[in-house]
Amino acid sequence: MNAPSSSPSTRRSAGLLLFRTGAHGFDVLIGHMGGPFWARRDAAAWSVPKGEYGPEEGPRAAARREFEEEFGRPVPDGEWLELGESRQAGGKTVTVWAVAADLDPATAVPGTFTLEWPRGSGKLREFPEIDRFAWCSPEVAAGRLVAGQRVFLDRLAEVLADRPGPAS
Fold it and tell me: What is the pLDDT of residue 101?
């Protein structure tokens, strides 16, 4: 996996990609980004539950915190599989781990953010950070995820192929 960048100005984000295995392979749990900008989009409008962190917080702690904020439930118990990092188009470096779990997306209670909407109106509205979650095959997830996160699907497939069990 890639070593973390040492530049203090690098924007960093960390996340947790849940997966479940079965006879056909594996599915991943991804979230559709909330707010008016993403409301009518599907392709490249989904994300691994993740968020930014600063130098005072490690990436693993940030991944746990962000999952709990965005999904609204504790991180499931399980082994954290390192998927490394990827630099997104906007310059942010994202570090992701995967954990085997089978959570019901309907139980999510996403955190919210405040935004002036419509822009210039002076009215503040709250929107969910993630407005819905879904289990997807890697093929479906690849079309939904933002481009800089698609690499984590391939990396998860590689990690699972190297492990004994039903997903290999």
Answer: 97
